[in-house]
Protein: Thiamine diphosphokinase
Amino acid sequence: MRTFSILLSGSLTPTLRLKAQIAGSRVIAADGGMAHAGPLGLEPELWVGDFDSASAELQQTYAHVPREEHPTGKDFTDGELAIEAALARGAERLILVGAMGGQTDQALAHMLLGVRLAGQGIPTLLSSGNEEAHPLLPGTLQLDLPPLSKLSLLPLGGFIGLSLRGVRWPLQNAEIPLGSTRTLSNLALGRVEIELEAGYGVLIAYPEPATL
Structure:
């Protein structure tokens, strides 16, 4: 599966887990997200954006990377434009690096964008290293997390027929309405398995052992 990593300008902790997830992927940077290339040991093939958040030093260091420049007064974020560039190059799976943290509006927009992409048949992982998000749509999701990692399910469109296994507090065929906090702050015990009949949302995981 052709995987592209998109470097966004949110928070980043260059963990071993994240480095393993992006290994072998093609890379496109979105504006100031190029700052993550060095810590992750990546060489992007394209740099997309209006370059209003890329420092002069960053632009000098990566002056050799081909650019796709856009005006500041554009209709879409640099991140979404970088994603479109990846899809145009045949991306079949996306990893949005630096998608979490930073501005709340940007982080939430990235999660909703991830849900939309997953619904279009493009599996999408959002990660900032110590925090990652997985879109949830009707079907089955299996997720490997370190034991005792904290995880929360956000019912952005509500959940119907939600079953959750491999966690401290499992569920079976549950209905979770929009805005409910019932599915927050669970703990992974091994491989996490999720089944969903209808609705959509996001699973947010913190892949570090939690303190009991």
Remarks:
- The longest strand covers residues 186-196.
- The chain has a mean pLDDT of 92.
- Residues 4 and 89 are 9 Å apart (CA to CA).
